Amino acid sequence: MFLFKIHLFPSLKFKNILKSRHFRTSFLLTASGLTTVYVIICVLFCTRNLFVLKENLETHANHAASSIQDIINSMKSSSVLIGSMPSVDLVLKNSSPSIDQLSQMIDDVSTFSDLYEYENIALFFYRSGRIYDTNSGIYYETDYYNKELIQTVSSMETDSMWFFSTANLRYYEGRREVPLLTYIRRLPIYESRARGYIVISFSLADLQEMCEEEASESPWLSAVYFQDQLLWSSSGEDEILHEGIAYSSNAEDDVRCSFYLTWKDQFNYLLPVLPSPVLYPAVLFLSFLVSVFYAAHMIRPVDALMEKLGASPYTKSSKRGSDEFTLLDTEFERISTQLSHARSVTLQNQQLIRDLLLHDLLDGRIEPDQLPEEYTRSGIRFPHSDFCLILIFVPGLSDLTDDAEQKQIGQMLCANAVSSFSILGACYALNTDIGEIAVILNTDSGEKLQSELKRRCELLKMHSTFHSSLQLLFSVVLCSSGPDRLHQAKLLAEQNFLLMSCGTENVTFEVQKEFAPSIDPGLPEQLVHCILAHDSSQLKKHADRFSTECLSKAASLAEAKKFTSIVLYSVFTSLLKLDITVKESMLNEFIQKTDSAQTIQECDNILWSCLACLTNSGPKMSNDSHAYVRKAVQYLELHYSEPLSIPQIAAHVGVSSVYLNKVFKMATEKTLSEYLNYYRISRSLELLAGSTETVNRISESVGYNDVRSYIRFFKKFYGMTPNEYRKSGADARPTLV
Q1: 316-367 per-position pLDDT tens digit
Q2: Which residues are CB-contacts of 281 (< 8 A; sequence separation ≥ 6)?
Q3: For residues 132 and 611, what is the distance between their CA atoms, to the nearest angstrom?
Q4: Fold for domain 33-282?
Q5: What's the topology of domain 624-727?
Q6: SS3 call for 508
Q7: C-alpha angle 522/523/527, rounded to 5°?
């Protein structure tokens, strides 16, 4: 490590690398990752070896259990064979069997007793009241020595049973007690009425000796159970066995053999096969090396950044307890403090602050009757109740190439506007764009306000022409008392410039209200859609409808001219709002023709001529507008099954809901709501045709909370209900209505 430090890194740089956040994070991640891999490998080794151990122990347990099970099965089969012997059956049926019959039966039964080394075989004959015992001979039931066995046989309610007994006495071996495993079966074998029983007993000591021979080969604790009763265990105590994990034989047999391993036993078994413990320190050392080189590489750009900030590089810093990010934060805070100071110096210019605040008013972020305290501190006050917005347009200002000259003229015009209009009330002016000045006038309404405003505009125009040779256009809007009044007034004033530029008047007045309620609000939108789609037939149809509904009902030629001008203006404004480039001269030309029209029919012809020219000029929606529509369609088709709202879709696209809905309808001939319902209904066709789900569930899966709305829209689009569509076979897509 010492050589590594000396030859690769200087001492100070090496120390800084080790205390860097890059090193600590990298070492933590790499050490954690490699440790996880090491642990996973150990777990895989343990799992594999435990699985092998489990298979071996269960195989051994099955072999041991099957050997003992053979004895059990032989006792069962012997009882069946003995009970099926003719000699036994003859004694069962005879109430007074002869000596020959009894002798024949004894000879037959003794063969089984000698062959299988059973401890005892006893036959109970109810009709004759006799009991034959292979160890003691034939008894009458009243003389039989094992009264407990007689009682057990008499109380049997099943065809067979097993039990442990220690009460049997051997007369010929000193009358000692012998533990037995006894099997009792009712006779005859294949009849429901019992005429006797056969009792076969096997020495429990011999059975346990066999268990020991079969199970003691394993070094683990082992036990053999018969019908869940312990026959034999290597520990001699049943309670100790439950402390370990059992690996047992097949549980379907009467005999079960189990091997028990404690956690300590398993650990001792697995310890030799685990990966070497020396490997883990090597893993940690590898993590350390990787982290050092990674930190050294990542700190290089940090050093370069700190040098650009005018600070000492991190690797050469002698500050204790500071990592690279702490030093960067310190430098950024220093720069931030400097920037804040510079900003505070800049904001000392009161005019800049006032312009920012006035912009908030014009953009609708602040209502003029609810001004925050900073407006008062900046000297902005509105003591009167009425407002007027004067928008001044300087067409030639944008042609100047000198930015400083543009700024100087703009500031001069603002000062002149405030000086001219302040006599009417509280007045504030600001440059909203190159060649555009907004004047906010807070005044009391009066009968001479409009004439006085016009006179002031003319004086300001003359003053500007005399000093800078610039022509001024004025659009004056008398604000309403509703919310967002200044913002709406600014929009209206900007729109009026289109109509103003082609006339002789340089000052227009407007009151915040709709142009003409008698004109269908959707007509300009329909005309614009036909222009963008180059659909002349539909365009002609909508133009004829306007002629029939508006021009033919106009009270005078002047009103017909106004209607025509409004429609032309609305179409051009809609195209501009969609970021579509149109020639302003075209609007001016047709507005002038409308003003000079002699008849209502001529107004109609002028409108159609303008619409045809726009269609033939091939205007198209901008790429941004198409991108908004595509993004809205993608989002809608991805989330159609969720609760969706128009503002939610617009927020995802990043535009206002009003603008998005307008652009969407222009591109698709459907509003967002109409397209959403159409898409949901079309997606439900597959579910109706290919599933057995209820209509209610299908309506929920495509985004409807109310099944009635789903059925209503389905019938609107396809002329039938969902159930009618299902009953029709749903082989083909239904026809849209």
Answers
A1: 776 666 777 777 788 788 888 777 766 665 555 566 677 778 878 887 778 8
A2: none
A3: 125
A4: Beta-Lactamase (3.30.450)
A5: Arc Repressor Mutant, subunit A (1.10.10)
A6: strand
A7: 120
